[in-house]
Amino acid sequence: MLNLHRLFLLHELRRLETMSAVARAHSMSPSAVSQQLSHLERETKVTLLRQAGRRVVLTDAGVQLARRAEEMLGLLEVAEAELAHAQGEAGGLLRVASFQTPMIALAPAAVSVLAQRHPALHLELGQQEVDEAYEGLLAHRYDVILGEDYPGGQQVVRRGTDREALLTDPLLLVLPDTGPWTHARSLTALADAPWALDPPGSRTGIWSRTFLRSAGIEPQVRFTTPDPLLQVHLVRSGNAVALLPGIIASEHLGGTRVLRLPGDPHRSLYTAARAGAAQHPSLLAFRSALLEAAKRLTAPEALEAFGD
Predict the structure, then answer these.
(1) pLDDT score of 105
(2) Which residue, among 307, 274, 269, has the nearest Cα to 291 in the 3D structure?
(3) Which domains are seen in the chain, by residue range?
(4) Which of 17, 91, 111, 143 has a CA positioned 20 to 30 A from the CA of residue 35?
(5) Separation of alpha carbons 149 and 147, rounded Å
(6) pLDDT at residue 215 greater than cutoff 50
(7) Are strands 194-197 and 220-224 parallel, antiparallel or unpaired?
(8) Residue 306: pLDDT above 70?
(9) Where are the alpha helices (DSSP H) in 222-280?
(10) Using CA atoms, how far apart are residues 287 and 166, in angstroms rounded to an integer?
């Protein structure tokens, strides 16, 4: 019988394309990956790899076996989900990756729901941005991740994953409650304001800069940070203005002036898991707890629209 771990590494080589990338993804040395794949070649008695310049690539037989390996891994997760259903209770360890704002606003309530209803289920939560989280999901380091899509941005859907909508989240303008920027009546009036924005290469940073430029201003970015709570602190202290998600509004935007943006833009939050595990009781319980936590969120009170 072929070794499943070696088949997994072959699948990963097809997905990631280089031995070095596979090694980095799985905390192995390239030589260790190569050794395992050489063992697989001996097991199959078929040439699976060939040298192409300085790289090792899959032969046609290697590509075909890697595809079958992906199918087998998916079927194994389906079988594990069916066995877990037969046991009748969500339990074990569920590894979760999420970017920051759901960790702030949803994770505490979701963890409490699961502790009450599924005490045998243990969560392991790690903070990761969406792209890194997806890589961890596909590499089987995480079981489920949280992601986000911004207006006008490309929707992220990875092959072999199951995606479920969680909530839509308003994107808001946050101003100091005192000072020269408090009573601005238009975005162009904030052209010279000091902005606190996410890094320019991040999803949030790309959206915020695109949105402001479409409104006719080039933001004067004085503070670059992916931490929304630090952005709030900079606004509250009168040192910046910012664009922030409504998911943190009820508990974390006190002492600021919060306004709806022109066009009322929203981002979409979702969960993603490997397709084979989509019906696993632990995953279903986690997704249900997240939805309940989302329903418990206190919506921002009737907000003034910017320019009203």
Answers:
(1) 93
(2) 269
(3) 4-83 (1.10.10.10), 91-168+267-296 (3.40.190.10), 170-264 (3.40.190.10)
(4) 143
(5) 7
(6) yes
(7) parallel
(8) no
(9) 228-236, 249-252
(10) 8
Please count the other Cβ atoms lying within 10 Å of the Cβ belonging to residue 181: 18
Question: Cα separation of 66 and 61, whole Å?
Answer: 9
Task: Please report the pLDDT score of residue 7 as a whole number.
Answer: 93
Whole-number pLDDT of residue 307: 58
| Alpha-carbon span 93 to 84, nearest angstrom | 12
Q: Which of 3, 138, 161, 158 is nearest to 69 (CA)?
A: 3
Q: What pLDDT is recorded for position 308?
A: 47
> How far out from the chain centre does Cα 72 lie?
26
Tokens at 241, concatenated: 């203005």
- What single-letter DSSP state applies at residue 17? -
The alpha-carbon radius of gyration of the chain (Å, integer) is 23
* Secondary structure of residue 185 in the 3-state scheme: coil
| CA nearest to 166, candidates 38, 288, 30 | 288
Q: What is the pLDDT of residue 247?
A: 93
Cβ–Cβ < 8 Å for 98, 292: no
Q: Which of 12, 113, 139, 123 is nearest to 66 (CA)?
A: 12
Whole-Å CA distances, 16 to 62, 202, 238: 14, 22, 46
- Which tokens sit at 207? 């959206």
pLDDT average, residue stretch 104-110: 93
Cα separation of 128 and 97, whole Å?
6
Identity of the residue numbered 198 = D
User: What is the number of alpha carbons within 13 Å of residue 34 lying toward its C-beta?
Assistant: 11
Return mean pLDDT, the chain: 92
How remote is the C-alpha of 147 from its chain's centroid?
3
Tokens coding 142: 């995480």
What pTM did the predictor assign? 0.89
- Integer angstrom CA distances of residue 18 from 10, 37, 212, 231: 11, 13, 39, 39
